Amino acid sequence: MPEDRVPDAKTIWLFRERLTKKGIVKQLFHGFEYQLQLKGLAARKGQIVDASFIEAPRQRNTREENKDIKAGITPESFAENNHKASQKDVDARWTKKNNEVHFGYKVHVAIDNENKLIRDYDVTSAEVHDSQVFIELLADNSSADVWADSAYQSEASTLELYASGYRNKVHKKARRNKPLSVKQQEMNSKKSKTRARVEHVFGSMENEQGGMFVRTIGHTRAAVKIGLMNLAYNMRRMVSLQRRGASVIC
């Protein structure tokens, strides 16, 4: 109820820790899918796949420490200082995109075109290329159409989509000495009108859910925090869709 007391930060932290230890956030997320089905919000009109960076507190490590971390080795300085080690995120990674530097993780999502609800997701470190998490995100939908930007375009993904019975609406990608034709550019522009709907999801999280970042340590805790962000978005979106439906009926 609106008049109920809001749990303090410590209570929320403890609750999230319990979820982390039980490893059930993905189960909760998919469990809510059943509630969406009961409300008549099944996935329809195809699906859109995209990814966004989730920033983490930036680490101040030496070059030698970063080299060990990338190699999957615990730096000697961490092993000698338990307090220091507990504050270091050895799972988050640095990456660069469009001249912007990012540190942390990446959330990969598949939304349905009609309702803009997240139907599945995955969490990786930031350097993982979008195309490495693609086909496995695709969920049940009333339509076989799949949209994604050109980062997902490859011969392998084209074959996988075809073999799985999907209709490929992924943006075409220009290659060295082989620019896109006028027709291909026009088709990309047409696809963008639908594909851009996934940007609204990330925009909602950024502007209405406190931002796309985590202050946790390690992939496991980050995945829990991000999974709860996705679940909270779907809950908010469900309420919005229900209100919209009620206003149409009235």
Automatic annotation (TrEMBL):
InterPro entries: Transpos_IS5, Transposase_11. Residues 59-89, 174-194 are annotated as: Disordered. It comes from Reinekea forsetii. GO terms for biological process: DNA transposition. Belongs to the transposase 11 family. GO terms for molecular function: DNA binding; transposase activity. Keywords: DNA recombination, DNA-binding, Transposition. This is Transposase, IS4-like protein. Residues 45-235 form the Transposase IS4-like domain. The keyword DNA-binding applies. PANTHER family: TRANSPOSASE INSH FOR INSERTION SEQUENCE ELEMENT IS5A-RELATED. Residues 59-70 have a biased composition (Basic and acidic residues).
